[in-house]
Amino acid sequence: MKIRRIFFFLVLLAFSCEKDDKLAFEYITYLGDTCDGCPNIRITAPKALADSKIDKVVNNAIKEEIIYLLDFNEENDATDIESAVHSFTKGYTDLKHLFVDEPMTWEATITGSISYEDDTVLTIKLESYLFTGGAHGYQTIHYLNFNKTKAIALDGENLFKNTSDFEEYAESKFRKQEGIPEKGDINSTGFMFETGSFYLPQNIGYTQKGIELFYEQYEIASYADGPIVLTFPYPELQKYLAHVPKPK
């Protein structure tokens, strides 16, 4: 299977009089085969251009996340994005051969972008839509956060000085946004927190507007309710964030 790669280069201000600590990226688009019997695949992802440790950490995390998103089969042994695209295509064609007379269309669209970057923190946002049959597809957002100084990926807990303190603060904001009584059951208005208590989502990321909490469809509510999103402006988070962006 041939994968076409389309490159989009970010404009770099190489002659700026101020020091620019931002990483240099290129955008690469991976396309699946174009034919009547092929799934529709389009993956566009940023790739860090330098050879430093943080560039390698970022590129590997993006690669692994895209492989994970395309992996609907436990036997998927993809080691890069090209082979993940191939595996997704093979999954479709194998199923199509089993159900020759059934109308079938699969789709995988993943678009990566720089959600936030300063001298210390970088956040990559991956927006994805996958359809592999059934009543509807699945659309979501995944955030990948990095500490550029330490050259490490950050999970949700690493973003805060004390996760429990932030969780308590976030719950009060969540209840207010969603109209849940302050002292009532967190699920009293129809939410589905599995533990019966509020908890942070798996996807938390830096954005230009603030820290975003993104609950995927089914994570705490029904599919019909869609994703639940909370955004906290940085000035409110001085006492909670491990790294607070400086005002520009």
CATH C-level of the largest domain: Alpha Beta
Q: What does the average pLDDT come to?
A: 88
CATH topology (fold) name of the largest domain: Heat Shock Protein 90
Are there runs of 5+ residues with pLDDT below 50, and where?
8-19
Number of helices: 3
CATH homology group of the largest domain: Fervidobacterium nodosum Rt17-B1 like
Structural class label: alpha+beta
CATH architecture heading of the largest domain: 2-Layer Sandwich
Helix content: 10-25%
The tally of beta strands, per DSSP, is: 10
Tally of distinct domains:
2
Q: What distance lies between the first and last C-alpha atoms, to the nearest angstrom?
A: 47 Å
Strand content: 25-35%
Radius of gyration: 20 Å
Strand order of the largest sheet: 1-2-3-4-5-6-7
Q: State the shape.
A: flat
Q: What is the helix/strand order?
A: EEEHHEEEEHEEE
Profile the largest sheet. Answer: 7 strands, mixed
Organism: Maribacter chungangensis
Protein name: DUF3298 domain-containing protein
Domain Deacetylase PdaC: 40-138
InterPro entries: DUF3298, PdaC, PdaC/RsiV-like_sf
Detailed description of the structure:
The strands form two sheets. This protein has a seven-stranded mixed sheet, with helices on one face. A three-stranded antiparallel sheet has the order 8-9-10, covered by helices on one side. The chain is built from three helices and ten strands. The radius of gyration is 20 Å and the shape is flat. With 248 residues, it is α+β, with helices and mostly antiparallel strands. Helix 1 (53-70) runs parallel beside helix 2. It has helices at 53-70, 81-98, 163-178, and strands at residues 4-9, 25-31, 40-48, 107-117, 121-131, 138-147, 152-154, 203-206, 211-215, 228-232. It has two domains: 4-12 and 20-154, Heat Shock Protein 90 (2-Layer Sandwich), CATH 3.30.565.40; 157-237, Actin, Chain A, domain 4, CATH 3.90.640. Helices cover 21% and strands 29% of the residues. The termini are far apart.
